[in-house]
Amino acid sequence: MKYDWKGRVVLITGASSGIGRALASELGKRGARLGLTARRGEELLRLGDEIGRAGGEALALPADVRDPRAMEEVAERVRARWGRVDVLVANAGMSSTTAGTRLNAGEVGDVISVNVLGVVNSVAAVLPGMLERGAGHLVAISSLASYRGMPKSGAYSASKAAVSTLFESLRVDLRKSGIDVTTIHPGFIRTPLTAGRRKKLPFLLEPDDAACRIIRAIERRARTYAFPWQLASFVRVIRHLPGAVYDRLASNSNFRE
Ligand SMILES: NC(=O)c1ccc[n+]([C@@H]2O[C@H](COP(=O)([O-])OP(=O)(O)OC[C@H]3O[C@@H](n4cnc5c(N)ncnc54)[C@H](OP(=O)(O)O)[C@@H]3O)[C@@H](O)[C@H]2O)c1
Q: Which sequence spans correspond to the domains of the chain?
């Protein structure tokens, strides 16, 4: 069945900047009705206005993904306005350097609670409605960093690996439910999340380009989609390296700089 965005109700978490914002702008142009959530309400209102001026429909719903009740309210407000949530894009996330030599439980907990529990809260808020209707699409923005424990990124890699395996289990459990499940594994995208990096990031993409690629993967109802292909292929090789070889290579890399 062809994926038609016109009138489709899409809830995007982390819509206030970067990939989420670019996805919302692009889907607005294609006629989707958009629930936009993140903590910065003013950014969401500004984006909602932009989408409205371009002829789209958007609802700004400030909330923290770590709060399960708040995410239920967000989903409820989208349903109150448009009757349902057709597509969830669980995109909200954060990254931080978490060097193993200076492990800080609080910092790791922050990353896990936004990147993992935030996704869980977002899915839990929309899934009962999708199950009832026997239709819907769950999309998570994981990362190529989920493929292996990246240097000085234990929390981020672990959080994204958790998202990927969570979504794989959901895909298995929801088979035949009428709900599609897609996990996206982006490489480097130019957003505030990567802005602080001193090192040149390989195959860096612009958010608009990333958004269009993600939308195509959603339309194909892909189970997983990793991009850009050059970095995805490299990381797939890295994934299968023996531990001893990986440890030596990764510990000598300046991946986090
Ligand atoms: N950029 C990359 O290279 C890259 C690569 C692979 C995967 N990703 C993933 O792509 C997703 C989007 O990242 P991005 O690069 O677009 O970064 P970004 O521009 O920093 O956007 C992150 C978004 O998440 C929201 N967010 C953060 N904490 C939140 C919280 N507690 N509650 C609600 N919303 C929260 C932020 O909004 P507020 O601050 O307003 O809450 C913002 O809208 C993330 O999951 C990231 O891990 C990014």
A: 9-251
47-50 own/partner pairs: CB under 8 Å, 24+ apart: 47/15, 47/16, 47/21, 50/25
Nearest CA, atom 41, ligand 1: 39
Each residue of 180-217: pLDDT tens digit?
999 999 999 999 999 988 788 999 999 999 999 999 99
* CA 21–ligand 1 middle distance (angstroms): 10
| 9-251 carries CATH number 3.30.200.20 | no
Residue range 16-25, pLDDT digits in tens? 999 999 999 9
Ligand 1 pocket list (CB less than 6 A): 13-20, 38-40, 43, 64-66, 91-95, 114, 141, 143, 186, 188-189, 191-194
